[in-house]
Specification:
Bound molecules: iron/sulfur cluster, zinc ion
Distance between the termini: 58 Å
Largest sheet: 5 strands, parallel
Order of helices and strands: EEHEHEHEHHHEHHEHHHHHH
Shape: globular
Structural class: alpha/beta
């Protein structure tokens, strides 16, 4: 390969199709870091002194998030959380231990937990029950909702100001496209970095690597020598059909016209900015079982509803709430003391 287009000294190892640049390892990693920093600053995602709870699965995207964020924000104010899903052969405790060791090298605190610890069941147990009960819901849906809930739970518990997740440009553009196809206007606005959470009980979420392509996070993680799992999740091919189709279609478009996904998200960012910033947290109805926020007209939150359909009536988090709801009480105290957010 040719010489790096930026430094003109080192050998290029990456061809960045959407810019036409050929980059050496150092210039490529710096390019990603600068873009993450620019995105954080553009939307003022993170302010100095804030405590950030970071989802660290140990996958390529989460390493990029940790590596770039710790260069921008004080690692002493970052808490990484690794959630073990409980999928046979995937993301086992031994691997999570390696993730923990690596996280500590960055000087961040680390919490290890699992879907089982929160709900009382591993993801595999939930999926098995769901299938037995004839519930046709993708394991990724259970997985995504549970992980979001667990992150928010710990964010409240540790008084974090924000949660940071490692959604990349491919994830974000797929989600936006699906929201457009479904006509889900609110979902689309909620994706925007200017929008605030639906309820004061949800800690604001940021996605600092939302403008980094998935191939770039994979390359960054590889060049950076991060520990990556060799096994793939056994449920990867059971992802919701619409998501799989949109994914394929967007890849084709990007292949034919490099930069398409980036332009798509940039356009949405500009178009939706004003509307998204009008969305404010509101007091929402609370789930009868677990006390978490739910939408108007619903008895249960999404997670309780799905678990109930899968035949799980009394998940552990709901039992903990029934016994006292300590975490929610603590959180209410904190937000009312702060004088800002309240129910
Ligand atoms: Fe979870 Fe689906 Fe990812 Fe597997 S592929 S870890 S089930 S989101
Ligand atoms: Zn270079
Ligand atoms: Zn609930």
């Amino acid at each position: 390969m040719a010489t790096c287009s930026v430094c003109g000294v080192r050998k290029a190892v990456v061809y960045q199709k959407h810019t036409g640049l050929r980059l050496c390892k150092e210039c490529f990693m710096e390019n990603v870091q600068m873009r993450v920093k620019a995105e954080i600053e553009r939307w003022r995602m993170i302010e100095p002194g804030e405590t950030i709870l970071l989802g660290l699965s140990g996958g390529k995207d989460s390493w990029v998030l940790l590596d770039t964020l710790t260069q921008i924000h004080d690692p002493g104010r970052i808490i990484a959380v690794t959630i073990i899903e409980g999928i046979p052969g995937y993301n086992r405790r031994e691997y999570a231990e390696r993730v923990r060791m690596k996280a500590r090298e960055y000087g961040v605190d680390h919490i290890m937990t699992s879907i089982k610890e929160y709900t009382g069941y591993t993801l595999a147990e939930i999926v098995e029950r769901a299938f037995k009960n004839g519930l046709r819901v993708s394991p990724c849906t259970f997985c995504g909702i549970s992980r979001r809930r667990i992150l928010n739970h710990y964010a409240r518990m540790y008084g974090a100001d924000k949660t940071a997740t490692a959604h990349n440009l491919d994830d974000e553009s797929q989600a936006a496209f699906i929201n457009l196809l479904r006509g889900d206007w609110e979902g689309l606005l909620r994706q925007h970095p200017q929008s605030q959470p639906a309820s004061p009980l949800i800690v604001p979420r940021v996605k600092p690597i939302r403008k980094i392509y998935e191939w770039e996070t994979a390359t960054y993680a590889y060049l950076g020598g991060f520990p990556l799992q060799e096994t793939e999740c056994a449920y990867i091919n059971l992802m919701p059909t619409l998501r799989a189709r949109v994914r394929r279609a967007l890849y084709r478009l990007e292949e034919e016209r490099p930069g398409t996904l980036l332009r798509f998200m940039e356009t949405l960012d500009t178009l939706l900015e004003e509307e998204a910033s009008k969305l404010k947290p509101q007091p929402l109805p609370r789930c009868e079982k677990c006390g978490e926020p739910t939408s108007h007209g619903r008895r249960l939150c999404k997670l309780c509803e799905l678990l109930e359909k899968a035949g799980i009536q009394r998940p552990q988090y709901a039992e903990a709430y029934r016994r006292g709801g300590e975490v929610l009480k603590l959180y209410r105290l904190r937000v009312s003391e702060g004088g800002g957010r309240d129910e």
